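[Solved] Which block belongs to which protein?

Original post:
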Amino acid sequence: MSKIRFQRKPMPLIADYRPIYKIFQILSVLHYSSRGGKSSLIRLHLINWILKSPERKEQLATVIEDSTIPFKVWGIDPALNFGLQFGVAQGLIEQNKDNYSITKEGKELMLKAKKEGQELPESTYLQRIGKGITETLVQGIVEKWN
């Protein structure tokens, strides 16, 4: 009788699912595109979903001046939630009742990354859209879901 053997081998993990990458992505959103360095969870998921597609990024960038969001629904990514949990555990992100904010340590890390040229490629895009995706816009869409 033959035996089947399974042997685990290292498997590459795409960057979007690596905790440190996701933490830096969240810090970038809070630092560059959030008023007061704060954001709701649903807004973070919207921006995370937008960052996954060049078409969505361009579509949003062209209509952001009109204070509208062209998307009626978007995806929820568990990797973002894991990144938030790790960021909170590391003291880089603070969780309040219904939002997340960047801590002093998180800001210092972002400044250090910028100084050393280690920012994520998304940082340029987030600086470009600025604080145009407001909580009010996101909440308006969410209220229509009911």
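(Second protein starts here: sequence line, then its structure tokens.)
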Amino acid sequence: MNRKIVLILILSLCSFSVFAGDVAEYVNLGFSENSEYFMFGLYGIEYNTSKPYAGIYTVKVADNVYARNGVLEETYTHNIQPGQDGSGALYNLMAEKQSELQKYNINHLQTGRIVYLLINGAEPKSTLEFRDFKNNGRYKVSLVQQQFGTEKEPSASFYIDLTVTDKTNKITAYKVGLPDFKRKNVLKYRIKQIMFAPNEKSLVFVIEKEIVDGTGPSIRYMVETVNLD
């Protein structure tokens, strides 16, 4: 086997071995036609029970809050077979809740425009700077977080400092998130993705949460949104 391939396999195994819990998969499910709502999903397999789970979350972008009844979660009793990844839990949940999800008019092909992506295994940065040539703007993003409690019973809070410099060199500052809200069992946060909504008027930050759930560190996701008008 090629030595480069062997090295890649070893690094991949090492990157997952640090988690005794489970790593959820994040799925961008799209925006509504007017970019009013954004929907994303999670799925995975519980580490301690080997049961598949899924969640579907709908966010009202302008207000940076979950839509009414916008949190749907389910853990299934179906036994997972070797080679399965738990994605069937998400498909089942979408089918079961179809009538509730339809009211948001989500277009699953309308997933926004990604301007930042944290590659698996890469070291996350607390401050990011990038230029968006489509809007001819410059962006500085700082993730500010605080850890509390103990290693076994942690909590953590965060917010995002966002500075936007437009094509006329006008600078606008935003504070995104809830700086005083301590989320239980969270060890730390990372910015996984940043994307523009399809109407180019809002940014969506996909946040990776490292949590402690009794079996060791696990990964879950949430989002923060901000209007740039």
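Accepted answer:
You had them paired correctly. Confirming on the second one: The two ends are 54 Å apart (CA to CA).
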